[in-house]
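Weekly puzzle thread! Below is a chain. First person to post its structure in token form gets bragging rights.
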Amino acid sequence: MGRAMSEKQRKQATVRTGQGPERLPRGEFERRMRERFFDPAFDNADAQIESIIEAAWDGYAHGRKAPRTCKAGAEFADPEYKLSVEWLATRDAIRAAQSAQAEATRPARILLICASPRNDKTCPGEISKSLRLLQAARDMVAQGGNECDVLDLSLLTSEYGRVIYPCKACVSTAMPLCHWPCSCYPNHSLGQVNDWMNEIYPRWAAAHGILIITPVHWFQAPSTLKLMLDRLVCADGGNPDPTTTQGKDPELAKRIELDGWNYPRHLAGRAFAVVVHCDVEGATALRRSLVDWLTSMRLVLAGNAAAIDRYIGYYEPYATSHEALDRDTALFEEVRNAARALVNEVALQRGGRIEADASLKTPRDK
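Winning reply:
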């Protein structure tokens, strides 16, 4: 368990309020919702749209975040508490993924993440360089009979209904308020549905190794990647039992944390590699940031070859950046080496090798 706080510290842990928005007026709610039906194809469906808006308004006005629930059951601290059936489905998918990941007879599974928002089926009109590098890594990984799971984050920009909502930072109120998996979404009363993270969490849980290939946007991670990173905070210390906090009760969550939180690290031990590329500046800073983030969650860097930052077409025209990548055959081989190192690290781990610090207990959980 984490370090328990004194009674004085407990009394100081007050819940500060006064920032959130007031409920929208009915007219403004309808105006915003009608934006979804701007296409003239909906002009003859006004009666049906009005009926849909009325039902949605009722859900919004009454705050029906999770309209379909069931009793938690005996495995939870409060068996009678009603949990979202959608949250339970994601929790069950993660459990199944973790069970499969632990089976020694299954092939190694590598999650390959293309973090660029670009693809040729939306506004940029061409594929990303990140994807081309990922394809080289994927081909290498597959040669050894390993399973490859490609997560292309550019679908956020180009596929209907594909969305990752921003992290609400529940952890900054108290760690137990951040549930594993995240229970903030979907929020049906606010129309926040189709959250892709409900599919992404099990894919991380199923992986033995993770390879992230990303460009740099304005000296930082692209928003597609950052959204996913922030939402993975629940994998590092997140509370697997929302009934202990009665859903989202901040006072109760603070009390639980101050009594001593055990800080479960749900993805610890998985291997990783990172490839960062850009054309001008920021590659090294982002590579360091990603490595720091993953190691802070107790994932294991697959050696020096598994962390790469490179420039493609340094200060050259954007229009010829793919041609610049064509010429950089060494970069493709470096990416293959990163993938090889990742596969090797996974094989060593599955063969029984234990990291030197695996048994150590940190005196300073965040």
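Puzzle host: Confirmed. Bonus trivia for everyone else. DSSP finds twelve helices and eight strands in the chain.
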